[in-house]
C-alpha cells in the first residue's frame, strides 16, 4: 500500500473580493466537460512554463476536477530487471501526466488529494484565472478543535525544526529545555530538526508505552508557549475515530489526512479516478460536522454567470491575441495617418535634395 495525503483549503476570496456565497464549482465543472466533449484545447501555460490541463471527473455529489501537470521533456527513465535504462516508452504526441484531484465541497472547501508529483493547490487557482478569468484566493482550513483531534490521535511521530541561531533552553521547560540547551552547543548555523517515532518493530504494549511518552512530550512542548519560534512542528498518527492517518500542524493548527491506496489501482488511469472520487467523498462525509461547526455559513446561490464558456487556450490566450491585434491596429493607423504621410514625404524630399 502507498500513502497519499488529502489537504483541505477554502476559497476565501474571488477576484479580490471576499466570497460570502458558494463558489460556482458546478458551473466550472460543466464548462470543462463541455470543452472536453467539443475538443477545445484546455492546456494552460503558467508564467514559469509549467503546462497544466484540467478535466471534470465527477459532478455529484461534489464536483471533482483533475489537474494534470503535462510533461514532454526531462522525463524519467525505465529499466529492466538488470537495471538497464531506456527512455520512457511514450507514443508520438503523448505526454507524461502528473495528477492532483480536487473536490469542491460545501462552504467553499476544496479537498485536494495529492501524489507528491502532481500540481499544488495554488496551481488550480492559476489555472482558473488563466482559463476562465476567475481568481480564487485559497487559505488552508484551520482546525480549531485541535484539542479534540490530539485526544483522538494515536500518535506515532512527533517532529519539529527551528533555525540553529534560535536554539536556547529558555524556549522550553523540563526535558525539552535540556535538549535545546545541548543542541545550542552543537551548532549555531543551519536548521536543527528532531523527530520522535514509535517505530515499526516491538510488542504492542511497548509501542503503547512509547506512544504515551511521546504524547506527554507533545503536551509539555505545547505548554511551553514558545512554539512561534519554531519553523515546523507536527504530530502524526491514526485518528482513533475514523481510522485515517493524520498529520497535525501544531503551528497553524491544521491537519492533513493520509489515506492508504493500492499503487496498482492508482497506476491504472480509469481505476485511479474512481478510487480518488471515493476517497474524496469519504473525506467530505467524515469532516462535514467539523466544517459545519467551524466555517462561516454562505448566503445565496452560486453566481454561475461569473464563469464564461471556455475558449481554446483560455482567456489568457484570448487576451494575448486581442492585445496583439490592437497593437497591429495601432501600428496600421499610425502608418496611414496624414502626419505619417507628411513625414514620409518630407523624408523623401530631403533625400532628393541631398
Summarize this structure as a short list of keywords or feature phrases.
two-stranded antiparallel ribbon; alpha+beta; 15 strands; 354 residues; globular; 13-stranded antiparallel β-sheet
Structure description:
This protein has helices at about 25-40, 120-130, 145-150, 175-185, 205-225, 265, 270-295, 315-335, 340-354, and strands spanning about 1-15, 15-20, 45, 50-60, 65-70, 75-80, 85, 95-105, 110-115, 135-140, 155-165, 190-195, 230-240, 245-250, 255-260. With about 350 residues, it is an alpha+beta fold. Helix 2 crosses helix 8. The radius of gyration is 27 Å and the shape is globular. The relative contact order is 0.17.
Q: For the record, give the distance between the C-alpha atoms at the N and C termini, rounded to a whole number.
A: 86 Å
Element-level helix/strand string: EEHEEEEEEEHEHEHEHEEEHHHH
Helix percentage range: 25-40%
Strand content: 25-35%
Q: What's the count of strands?
A: 15
Largest sheet: 13 strands, antiparallel
Name the average pLDDT.
84
Going by helix content, strand content and strand pairing, the class is: alpha+beta
Outline the low-pLDDT stretches: 347-354
Give the overall form: globular
What is the CA-based Rg, rounded? 27 Å
Number of helices: 9
What topology does this entry show?
Elements: E1 2-14, E2 17-18, H1 25-38, E3 43-45, E4 51-58, E5 64-71, E6 77-79, E7 85-87, E8 96-104, E9 109-113, H2 121-132, E10 136-140, H3 146-152, E11 153-163, H4 174-186, E12 191-197, H5 204-223, E13 232-239, E14 245-249, E15 254-261, H6 263-266, H7 269-294, H8 314-336, H9 338-353
Antiparallel strand pairs: 1-2, 1-9, 1-10, 1-15, 3-4, 4-5, 5-8, 6-7, 8-9, 11-12, 11-13, 13-14, 14-15
